[in-house]
Each structure stands twice: as C-alpha cells, then as structure tokens.
Amino acid sequence: MFLPIGDENPREKTPYVNYAILAANIAVFLFIQLPSPDGAIRWAMRPASLEPVTLFTSMFLHAGLLHLAGNMLFLWICGDNVEDRLGHVGYALFYLAWGLAAAFAHVFTTTRPEIPTLGASGAISGVLAAYVVFFPRHRIKMLLWLWIYVDTVLIPAWAWIGFWFAEQIFLSSRGMGGGVAYGAHIGGFVAGLAVALPARLLMASRRPDAPLPEGVLRSSRDFEGPLLTLDDPDIAYLDDPGERCAVLFVGDDLHAVRQVATAVAAATGESPGAVARRLEATRGVVARRVSRTQAERVQRDLRRMSLPTAIVPDTDATSPPAPVRVEGAGWDEEALRLRAGGREYTIPWSSPFLYVGARVEGAYLLDVFVDRHTAFRFEGKPGAVARAVLENRRGAVLNEGVRVLAHWGGWGWLSFRTRADYDDYVFWLYNLVLSRVPIHRGPA
Question: How many CA atoms lie within 13 A of 91 on its CB side?
C-alpha cells in the first residue's frame, strides 16, 4: 500500500487560508456531524433537487472519519504550496471555484441524481492539479507498507498525481462509482488545470521584484583578478577563447523571463524551461559553463532586449570559496570569534565583504565571506549571529536574507529548493560584489 505522508517542498509564506479550510472541515465534522449525523444529509448536495446553498455546504461535509482524514491529508500536503503561488485571496477564491466546478461536473454526469453527495475531494482535486502544474518535479514522500515491511519512498509529483488522475478517469469510464463521485474529481481537476496553467505562464513572464542588495553597485573593497565591472554593464573579461564562461544579469528587473529563456536556449542548446527555472531561482545566472562564443551570442541577443549582462570566466578564480562549517561562535564590538574545522579564528568586523542568508532545502544558512579564499557557514538557527552582523558590519554587503534571519520575516524567493540553486545565486552575487576592475566591452 502506498500512502502520501508529506512532500519535499518548503513553503515561503504561512498558509493561513489552507489552515482555515482544514480547521473548518474538521470543526464541521466534530461539532455538527458527530452530534447530529442527519445534518450531513440535510446539507449535502442532491442533484435531483438541487439547492444552491448545498453547492457550498457540501464541500465541508464528510461521510466518516476516514473520508475526512484522507481528504485533509491531501490538502495538508499540497494546499500550502499552492497557496504560496496563488496568494491568500487567490487561493481562497479558487478553492471555492474548484469545489463549485466539481459539484456541477457531478450534477451533469451522475446516473444516480437522487443520492446525496458530500465531501471536499472535488475542491482538493483542483488543488492537486494546481500542485502538479506548479511543482511537477517536487517529490512526494510515500509510505510503503507491505505486510511487515514498512519504508518511505520519494515519488515526483507528476507521477503520483498523474497516476491518481488516470485512476479517476479509468474508474469513471467503467462505471465503478461505488459511492465515489469520480465525475466531481475529474471536474475539479480540470478546473484546477484551467487556473494553474495560465497562472504559471503569467508568473514565468514576470519575475518578482528582487532588488540588488545594498552596496553591490559600489563595493567598498578592491580585489585583483579576472572579475567583471559594473561601470559598464555590457562587458567581458576573457583571455582564452576555449575557456568556459558564465553570463550574469547585472540589473534589478529581469522582465519577460520566458522570452529571455527562449533566447538563451537558442544559443546554449538548453531547454527554455530549464533556463527559466534557473533565472527564477537564482535571480541572475543567465548561463553557466558555456563557451565564449555561446556567451557572446547570449549577451548580444539580450542587449537587443535592453537587458544588461556581463560575461565572466566560470573557473575556480571566479567561484566563491567553499564555506567551512562553524562549530561555535562568539563576538564583541571588535570581532567575530569562531571555532571551525578544529581551529580558532578571530575575524575583525572590517574583514568580511559579503554576508548571505537563505533557507536552503528547508535549512537556514548564514554564509560569511572573508576574502576570496575564506568563508564560514552558520547553520541551524543563526538569528543571533545575523543580528550581530546587522549591528557591527563595516561596509560589507549583505542580502535581504540576513535581515530575515535576524527578524524572522518572510523568505520569499530566498527559500531555495536545492543546494545547486543556492550555489548559483551565491556565484552571481559574489561576482557582482567583487566587480571593480574595468574590462573591455563584449561584442557589438
């Protein structure tokens, strides 16, 4: 037996609406249906004698504890992330709309209109459809139970939800109702697709505001090495035509992500979807590990779209140092004192040039870059360290994630699904901060 028990998809905002829907369903069952089971029949939807109010009330009724538990489990796993994408108001409205669509689908397809219908599964089918559109590759944690053998496995959302939807169509086509309104499930799912598909296209064409951290455009420190400059945003520094390069966006507003992704894909051979996902996740890495010819073509094409870019060698010289994990820390007004890798370090506050805070794969990180060869990483809940950074930094650049760690605000796009996405983001930010040496222009 397979049973979904969770997912690998950290949310960015508190899902107040999803919590409210869960609470409403549970409260109705505990305080209305259990004391008076006849109430469920009274407020259920009966297609043969349809009362408009029951289109809504039936969404919050369940036939029993197992029915309630199954629906709430699906809603708990998927609803929070869908609310992240649609927003609180949008999620509330569309949840009700998906429930109504499911109800009407059942009214027009049922062969037993005299039987009362109740349950949240029609609306939740819309939630599942939106989840698979927004997060097809995120993995669902499944409980595998075969007699005495128990284990957990991870299955991509598209596989689990796709199989579930195919099962609804198969059972419906065979007339295997068995008291289950498969037509409502299909109707709610199709309604979810009708909302989520255009919403995803719209979100792909506009990237949320992500201003560059304060100080990036005027780094307070000079560094030697083959680094780009922001004095002229369309530049390149390349000596060896055969070396691998990265193309970085150097502005605040990367608009029309879908069009940018198409242009980049034509030059690099990647899929537009992969390019768009990288841009949305990293906020600035247009391409990595491409040839000089490919990089120059990307830069030329994006210049026609009025998008400033820079080319840097994608080598160890331009990559951030791997942070050493901090095992213990203390500080005063003069310095950070760290224990890391079995050694003790005293780091004056004037030494670090970049602090980066983020949530990565559900964990909180604070990276401190001291120079081009030395970096340290605080893990766990480094809020106290972040507050010390805000109070004592000496002209260093910090991203918004440091303030979130210090004051527990919303993570937004600084919640990274994978380490690779976070590493690309740091590569972008690190190179912008160290951009001091004027370099020649890229190709016209």
Answer: 26
| Residue in the structure block whose two tokens are 């506050």 | 349
Listed in sequence order, the DSSP H helices in 110-234 are 121-134, 157-173, 182-205
Place of tokens 């919303």: 410
If we measure between CA atoms, which residue out of 205, 192, 9 comes closest to residue 91?
192
User: Which spans in 356-435 are helix H?
Assistant: 383-392, 400-407, 419-433
Task: Give Cα 8 distance to the centre of its chain.
Answer: 10
The count of residues in the chain is 444
- The confidence band for 232, taking pLDDT boundaries of 50, 70 and 90, is very low
Query: How confident is the model over 130-189, as pLDDT tens digits?
Result: 999 988 878 888 888 887 788 888 888 999 999 999 999 988 887 655 567 888 999 999
182, 188, 189, 195 alpha-carbon torsion, rounded to 10°:
170
Distance CA 177, CA 201 (A): 35
Q: What is the pTM of this model?
A: 0.57
- Separation between Cα atoms, residue 299 and residue 295, nearest integer Å: 6
64: which 2 tokens? 């029993």
Hey, what amino acid is at 267? A
The number of CA neighbours under 13 Å toward the Cβ of 140 is: 28
